[in-house]
Amino acid sequence: GAGVSQTPSNKVTEKGKYVELRCDPISGHTALYWYRQSLGQGPEFLIYFQGTGAADDSGLPNDRFFAVRPEGSVSTLKIQRTERGDSAVYLCASSDSYNSPLHFGNGTRLTVT
Amino acid sequence: QKEVEQDPGPLSVPEGAIVSLNCTYSNSAFQYFMWYRQYSRKGPELLMYTYSSGNKEDGRFTAQVDKSSKYISLFIRDSQPSDSATYLCATYTRGGTASKLTFGTGTRLQVTL
């Protein structure tokens, strides 16, 4: 596709459940990023992949959050034992190198009830 | 204190006005500066990207960076209702394998007819 694609666009889950959020980056982009945006705030960095490996996961808030990118393209952000405080928009971005501008998807709006 | 400070607004201006949006940052290691535009329920869209101090112009948009005072600005000339959105400044350092963006909170702009 032409841009970064994220699915689902909306996800409602109950507290304690497990969720997976998917990101399809722009074709050929080697760098992939996950950000989280709470209401009225700017996006906050979670994790950065260069190829298949997580080059920087310092933004993951705790061990309930995990992300993979097994073939260096699609990435999945996984959240275990969801909490109401996890409710936010989860944004994925990609770029063609580590210091090139990021191109964002429209995000997955996660609501934990 | 946040590393990037931005007035959240909202800022309301009449159509045709010149808009000035500003951010300050505290980390002198920041080297790259960006402005993103974010429409409601959409991902951030890159508007301007600059490295050095000075001005960069693109159509109705001018980005200005003053590294000595750690101040960045975005000017919009002849503002249009379609410019109504949230404007996010962002910055990052270069180096290592990480280039995670640090965002401001965003300024909500409304251009009225």
Note the topology:
The complex is a heterodimer of chains A (113) and B (113).
Chain A: E1 5-7, E2 10-13, E3 19-24, E4 31-37, E5 44-50, E6 53-56, E7 65-68, E8 75-79, E9 88-95, E10 103-104, E11 108-112
Parallel strand pairs in A: 2-11
Antiparallel strand pairs in A: 1-3, 3-8, 4-5, 4-9, 5-6, 7-8, 9-10, 9-11
Chain B: E1 4-6, E2 11-14, E3 19-25, E4 32-38, E5 45-50, E6 54-58, E7 61-66, E8 71-76, E9 85-92, E10 102-103, E11 107-112
Parallel strand pairs in B: 2-11
Antiparallel strand pairs in B: 1-3, 3-8, 4-5, 4-9, 6-7, 7-8, 9-10, 9-11
Q: How would you describe the shape of chain A? A: globular
| Weakly predicted, low-confidence segments of chain A | none
- Tell me the count of domains of chain A: 1
The whole-angstrom Rg of chain B is 14 Å
Q: What overall form of chain B do the CA principal axes indicate?
A: globular
Percent in strands of chain A = over 45%
Notes on the structure:
The complex is a heterodimer of chains A (113) and B (113). Chain A is an all-beta fold. Chain A has one domain (5-112): Immunoglobulin-like, CATH 2.60.40. Chain A is built from no helices and eleven strands. In chain A, the strands form two sheets. In chain A, strands 2, 4, 5, 6, 9, 10 and 11 form a seven-stranded mixed β-sheet that branches. In chain A, strands 1-3-8-7 form a four-stranded antiparallel β-sheet, with no helix packed on it. Chain B is mainly β and 113 residues long. Chain B has a single domain (4-112), classed as Immunoglobulins (Immunoglobulin-like, Sandwich). Helices cover 0% and strands 53% of the residues of chain B. Chain B has no helices and eleven strands. Chain B has strands at 4-6, 11-14, 19-25, 32-38, 45-50, 54-58, 61-66, 71-76, 85-92, 102-103, 107-112. In chain B, strands 2, 4, 5, 9, 10 and 11 form a six-stranded mixed β-sheet that branches. A five-stranded antiparallel β-sheet of chain B has the order 1-3-8-7-6, with no helix packed on it. The termini of chain B are far apart. The chains are: A mainly beta (113), B mainly beta (113). At the A-B interface, β4, β5 and β10 of A face β4, β5 and β10 of B.
